[in-house]
Amino acid sequence: MTPKQYARLSDWLKSKGLTAEDFDECIHYIAGVPLITTTENAVEKEKPSSLPLKERTRQTQ
């Protein structure tokens, strides 16, 4: 994916209601790369949902 495609995808997903964290999780999932957080700025997060993205966004609305 080119940087321009990445930026366009980011803008589109954010326009659909995804947060920056959701976008990062999505890209890492697609790439098959685990999302790594550093211990100095890590915040305890919920375990990622196994629900499809559409279902997760419906729950938060």
Give keywords.
61 residues; 3 helices; globular
Task: Write up what this structure looks like.
This protein has 61 residues and is mainly α. 54% of the residues lie in helices and 0% in strands. The chain has 3 helices and no strands. The longest helix is centred in the N-terminal third of the chain and has 13 residues, at 3-15. The chain starts with a helix and ends with a helix. The model has no long low-confidence stretch (mean pLDDT 75).
Task: Give a brief description.
It contains three helices and no strands. The chain is mainly α.
What's the mean pLDDT score? Answer: 75
What percentage of amino acids are in beta strands? under 5%
Number of helices: 3
Please outline the major beta sheet. Answer: none
The Rg value, from CA coordinates, equals 13 Å
Give the low-pLDDT segments: none
From the spread of the alpha carbons, the general shape counts as globular
Structural class: mainly alpha
| Terminal-residue CA separation | 30 Å
Q: In percent, how helical is the residue content? A: 40-55%
DSSP strand tally? 0
**H/E element sequence:** HHH
Secondary structure layout plus pairing:
Layout (H helix, E strand, L loop, with lengths): L2 H13 L4 H12 L21 H8 L1
